Amino acid sequence: MGGGKIWSESENAINGAVNHAQQVSQAWGPLLATNIYCKAMGMLIDCIFELILSHVMKAPDISESSCQFVNTLFGDLLGSVEECFPKRLVEAQISCKYWHKFFAVGKFMNMSLSEINHALAEGFFRSITGPELSSLIQATFAESTKRENVLKALSKSDQM
Fold first, then answer.
1. pTM of this structure
2. Which domains does the chain have, with CATH numbers?
3. Which of 4, 77, 108, 109 has the fewest Cβ atoms within 10 Å of its own Cβ atom?
4. To 10 degrees, the CA torsion angle through 157, 131, 119, 151?
């Protein structure tokens, strides 16, 4: 993933989507029953999450600075999305099928291979498929024995 211009464009697009979601939230919140509101907002937020995730998951090479950018951007976006679900965070997480995946990918971007291996053993990456996680690891970390060990551990966990 490249630098400055792409980051700026990505950030602007995401901020625009978040602003739109927040406007929809303000319009729908007072009108809709909680369960209907959460389902509708969940579908809208999932569209945003899915679009962003698809680009990150397909990236063939993710630099350290790109990881930091993605980690920060994902954290900021989750914070903004939480504002669309005041006092309904549990409902938001249930209504957005990509919530946990988005959270996990964002956290992944700030982890070392040792932390990823530990998180894998703890089941933290349950929402990410084995091939997706393998692809992220290969795009993010240089070839090394440690990387290969994590990939082997991941392939073993997929077979279970």
1. 0.87
2. 4-159 (1.10.357.150)
3. 4
4. 70
